[in-house]
Amino acid sequence: MRDAIEFQDVHFAYPNRPDSLRGIDIAVRAGSKVALVGPNGAGKTTLLLMCNGMLRPTKGVVRVGGVPVKYDARSLREVRRKVGLVFQNSDAQLFAPTVRQDVAFGPLNLGMEKDEIKEAVERALHQVGMNGYERRPPHHLSGGEKKRVAIAGVLAMDPEVLVFDEPTSALDPATAEEVMDLLDELNHEGRTVLLSTHDVELAYRWADEVVLMENGAVLRHGSPEAIFSDTALLHQARLKPPAVLDLYRELSDRGLFKDETPPRSALEFTDLVEGLAGDQRSHDSCGAIHIWDAAGVDSTALETLLSSGAVTRVGAMGTRAKQRASEEGIVPDFTYGVIDKCLLRAVAGEDSLILTSGGMLAHTRERIDTYAMESGREIGIRTVETGFLGRRSTGPEAPARTKDQDGRSKNEIAPDCEQSGREDNINGMAG
Ligand SMILES: Nc1ncnc2c1ncn2[C@@H]1O[C@H](COP(=O)(O)OP(=O)(O)OP(=O)(O)O)[C@@H](O)[C@H]1O
């Protein structure tokens, strides 16, 4: 896979200061999710500011898409179109009198035509779920809303790479989770995401790769498991291990685990612990996961399912799904880590529902299938009927809901689990 950004022997010193970066050599693969972690003053922000040419190395080379960054105004415009940088403090990024003007700033600077700008602004605000806020002054928005508008500002230029300095700092836990869900969605669209964070829990469960920095240098670049399992390394960087790994290590030290792969999530951890219980494992009592395409127009089947009481928890994955949940008057229980949380409910014998759309539909099914196969559990996947999907070219009008002999719509019924991960596509309409 090609590299989105490469740093080769990059050094940097602020005026009259010692080196803040001391020979950085890393490559960020295109399409990956990379977390920069390290203590205060390690050089994370300084490194991120190099990604789109906001800072110029005093020595060494930064490459974007294989091409060395040049620092004349024209080359910088081109680099900033490819690499969008979202600052830690949204107030430092938002300055126009209205949200619309703020998001339009980048495309305007790129010299885009008026119509193109309008379209880019609408698309970007829609992507972050902030359509309807166009006329609002950014400084009147909440922290989470400001962050979304700042993200829209870079998305309006349709960058291949998104760089975030501490994307969740100063956000409440639920808003932070929603922002991370948005980042995942953008990554699913094929964009590379590089972020800095102090949050080891976030870095451990989210990242494909972790770059651990200290004192202007890279201490280690590797998998989250390798980095966060190395206690001495974490101590050197003044970081704590993620809670799930800490528990795993304590149990390993008591001889309960030997060569198992360290867990990265509550789901993996509970599976490992349950494995210790041997025969007491509850193979046969798993629940099903219902999936509803949030881009569908007909919500009758959804209402039927929800009012049947069969579903104990609802998760909304992605901006479209969250908007749709709000339109349908549904308050989701899960807005981040949705699939794992629903798998946990399924293993506990409960049915849950995931609202999602687009490429996330296939991803959801694949993830459930993989888990079912690897764990040997039988978890049913049910597609809730959505009616005609506007974005499809093949569908005519909404098909009538099928009824069983008792006259109930089929998705009201929670039959026993299907085979591992096998999809029970109720009305023959895969999303
Ligand atoms: N504008 C600046 N002028 C002078 N020195 C700076 C400036 N910004 C950062 N530094 C110095 O550069 C070094 C790296 O700082 P940087 O902000 O990149 O670290 P960081 O890892 O992002 O820290 P934090 O986690 O606290 O945000 C520090 O020693 C800091 O004092």
TrEMBL record:
<dbReference type="GO" id="GO:0006824">
    <property type="term" value="P:cobalt ion transport"/>
</dbReference>
<dbReference type="Pfam" id="PF00005">
    <property type="entry name" value="ABC_tran"/>
</dbReference>
<dbReference type="GO" id="GO:0042626">
    <property type="term" value="F:ATPase-coupled transmembrane transporter activity"/>
</dbReference>
<keyword id="KW-1003">Cell membrane</keyword>
<dbReference type="InterPro" id="IPR003593">
    <property type="entry name" value="AAA+_ATPase"/>
</dbReference>
<feature type="region of interest" description="Disordered">
    <location>
        <begin position="387"/>
        <end position="431"/>
    </location>
</feature>
<dbReference type="GO" id="GO:0005524">
    <property type="term" value="F:ATP binding"/>
</dbReference>
<keyword id="KW-0472">Membrane</keyword>
<dbReference type="InterPro" id="IPR015856">
    <property type="entry name" value="ABC_transpr_CbiO/EcfA_su"/>
</dbReference>
<feature type="domain" description="ABC transporter">
    <location>
        <begin position="5"/>
        <end position="240"/>
    </location>
</feature>
<dbReference type="InterPro" id="IPR003439">
    <property type="entry name" value="ABC_transporter-like_ATP-bd"/>
</dbReference>
<dbReference type="GO" id="GO:0043190">
    <property type="term" value="C:ATP-binding cassette (ABC) transporter complex"/>
</dbReference>
<comment type="function">
    <text>Probably part of an ABC transporter complex. Responsible for energy coupling to the transport system.</text>
</comment>
<dbReference type="GO" id="GO:0016887">
    <property type="term" value="F:ATP hydrolysis activity"/>
</dbReference>
<dbReference type="InterPro" id="IPR005876">
    <property type="entry name" value="Co_trans_ATP-bd"/>
</dbReference>
<keyword id="KW-1278">Translocase</keyword>
<keyword id="KW-0813">Transport</keyword>
<dbReference type="InterPro" id="IPR027417">
    <property type="entry name" value="P-loop_NTPase"/>
</dbReference>
<comment type="similarity">
    <text>Belongs to the ABC transporter superfamily.</text>
</comment>
<comment type="function">
    <text>Part of an ABC transporter complex. Responsible for energy coupling to the transport system.</text>
</comment>
<dbReference type="InterPro" id="IPR017871">
    <property type="entry name" value="ABC_transporter-like_CS"/>
</dbReference>
<feature type="compositionally biased region" description="Basic and acidic residues">
    <location>
        <begin position="400"/>
        <end position="425"/>
    </location>
</feature>
<dbReference type="InterPro" id="IPR050095">
    <property type="entry name" value="ECF_ABC_transporter_ATP-bd"/>
</dbReference>
<keyword id="KW-0067">ATP-binding</keyword>
<protein>
    <recommendedName>
        <fullName>ABC transporter ATP-binding protein</fullName>
    </recommendedName>
</protein>
<keyword id="KW-0547">Nucleotide-binding</keyword>
